[in-house]
Amino acid sequence: MVAPKSPGIPGSCQYLYDSAVIETGGDMKRRILGLLVAATLLAPVGIAATPTPAIAFTGHHCTRATCIFFTSSYSTARFFYDRRTCDQWRDLSNTYLHGFRTRAALLRVFDRRLHSPC
After folding, report:
1. What does the pLDDT average to over 68-75?
2. For residue 15, what is the enclosing H or E element?
């Protein structure tokens, strides 16, 4: 005959858990396991909830190397840049950067003023 398992050190979590299992014949173990599963399913997911930033240059019939005029689509942007007279377009965020071959094409899409030569 096997002696019943000792519940451990009184006052410890293991003692309370073992005592409950011994007294209820495993019913408490199932309840605790159910609570752990529920808590896991209801926990917020931190990693998947953060969106990855878009890393995209938008070239309107040109590439970064062949576009002449650049602007930002960010809501506070006011200027466009001519790559031949100013290099400040390189500081614009790639996420919002738009490039055009002609000034007219840029002005059809964005209401911007030409930045003064740098």
Report:
1. 95
2. helix 13-24
